[in-house]
Here is the input.
Amino acid sequence: MNYKQTEHGILRFNKITEKDIIILKYIEKYGPRKALLEIFKKIKRKNSEFSYSDIVYRYNSLIKKGKLQFNVFPNHFRLGLSIVLVLFKIKMKYAEIFEDIIKKNPTLVYYVRKYGSENGYLTFFAVPMNYVSQFLEFVAFIKTIGIAESYKVYIKDQKVDSGLGFDWYDFNEGKIVWKWDEFVQEVIANKKIEFEEKSNVPFSYRPPDLSDVKILKYLELEPAAKFSEIAKATNLPISHVKYHYEHHLIKKKYIDRFVVYVWLFEPNEAVGYYYSIIDFKDKKSMKAFAAALKGKPFVYSAITFANKNSLGLNLYLPHKQLLNFNKAMWDLAKEGIVEDYIVDIFDLRFAKAYTLPYELIKDGVWTYPHEEIMKSIQNVLVSYNLI
Here is the structure.
């Protein structure tokens, strides 16, 4: 578990053009290591206005200005991990102790303090699939010892494709035009669509080998790194890095997707970072809402949860748009689509992200040191004179 120093990997523009969007979409699809010439070949078939030098210039200028930033999302399911979201309502006086306790669990990948529906923390853990029940004992123990007042557990099912978020962007004005009423109507219209059920293709997962681990871990920390940089950092031959990247990380789908984050809000606009869990009447309502998210500028990421008709949304919202988001939820509730929801604001001063717990792979198999974790919690409690 390595600490990732991140500011949510955002690409900030003063103004963006439609040409930029086309390039960004292909970079997101093929990843930052895909040769620009290959991207050019794909684009050329659909848009004859582009030249190779145009693409290289736009790409390099964004890199040099530090405006183009990526993130890489490992495919946790393919790797044999369950992503578990736990919302903790804690006793506020125990905040420091709580953070020390959750850091003792090597499966922790993110935590942030939140305010709103319940004061506490949002946490994500990447737990080896065969050890989820033992992990839940760890969660329950935090409540048993009185640090947490309550908690709610959600297990990630699938990601929702929310796209790059340009649907409400006015290219002439260089700003977002908020269209909440249209969004509500789009969700309502989507209820009439019969969405296809995604069939689960059976496969045998296996943890990545040592070379895969080294490369994946470095890409989590440096998503846009070149092959030569990866080779130097991992002490692997560049040919070895390229082979494992193409034939393992990509073909075996150990990497789920590449993400380019685009910041379209106006300069100096007060923007908050929020998390919302929305409960729907049924799966059809949930799918109608999820389909309407694509291309919307307020969605940072979205996921579904196992055995629930609910969505989890990371949101970027200007403060004055938070009321409009809430109104949209109430309008959809009136239509019988949304049943309930929560929305909490993040305090990023109390947040950290970590890489996946690759150190738990022993002899090619995922492990989970439950007894060590529980003992370490006891040591934390002793250090604070709580036992």
